Amino acid sequence: MNRPKKARILVAEDNDDNRRLLSIYLTREGYEVIEARDGVEALDKAHAEMPDLVLSDVQMPGLDGYSLCWQLKQDPETERIPVILITAVYTSLEDTLKGLHQGANDFISRPFRQSELLARVQTQLRIKELQDRLVQAERASTVVRMAVTLAHEISNPLSGILGYAEVLLREFDQDTLSRERLRVALERIREAATQIRSVLEQLRNLPQPEVYTYAPGLEGISLEGP
């Protein structure tokens, strides 16, 4: 069985000491950390690395945490990545509302305890995991419905092939099979076989399932699009 993948966290912080401290906290908990020195670098790395969570300081040169969050949430590829914004000691209601409007999932104010940071990170990762499972379940449901539809589409032409085969065998045994009758039957069989081949091509393009373990003794199926 496959082990659950290690969560990857993108840390965006322009202060070297703060960024290093955040990385230490997270790596000690077994997370894989990707570091960015500002919002622009964080945005590039978010698209390149597709982290499971973004932990970003609000005050950064070039592209601040609010703008970084906004751009991530506007992109369909990164919109489901949770973003935790690190704010100053005092954060006004207006600043909090601004962050929420930009799509931030959570806030944490300095100074904070390591345990508080890790708890918020774990909570957001857990929420994302549940959301990902819902997406996978919807994909699985879609694939099942598609497979049922395609199976029905195969059934009709297959019945036609079997029917024409029965007629040909019966008339052949009775020595009543004419060349014209044979030609018509073979054309119908070819048409039905072409339909089946088209359906099989659609089946080949369905997402390939990947079995993964998300808890001891429990496995799930991941369906990724081609």
Q: Overview of this structure, please?
A:
The protein has 226 residues and is α/β, with parallel strands linked by helices. Helix content is 57%, strand content 16%. The protein folds into 2 domains: 8-112, 3-Layer(aba) Sandwich (Rossmann fold); 134-222, Helix Hairpins, CATH 1.10.287. The chain is built from 6 helices and 7 strands. It has a 5-stranded parallel sheet with strand order 2-1-3-4-5, with helices on both faces.
Tertiary shape: rod-shaped
**Main sheet characteristics:** 5 strands, parallel
Helix and strand run: EHEHEHEHEHHEE
CATH class of the largest domain: Alpha Beta
Strand content: 15-25%
Q: Can you tell me the residue ranges where pLDDT is under 50 for at least 5 consecutive residues?
A: 214-219
Q: Can you tell me the CATH topology of the largest domain?
A: Rossmann fold
* Strand line-up of the largest beta sheet: 2-1-3-4-5
CATH superfamily membership of the largest domain? Response regulator
Total strands: the figure is 7
Radius of gyration: 28 Å
The CATH architecture of the largest domain comes to: 3-Layer(aba) Sandwich
> pLDDT average, as an integer?
81
- The helix tally amounts to 6
Number of domains: 2
* N→C terminal distance: 23 Å
Helix and strand content put the structural class at alpha/beta
Summarize this structure briefly:
The protein is an alpha/beta fold. The chain has helices at 16-28, 39-49, 65-74, 93-101, 114-173, 179-204; strands at residues 8-12, 32-36, 53-57, 83-87, 106-109, 209-215, 218-223.
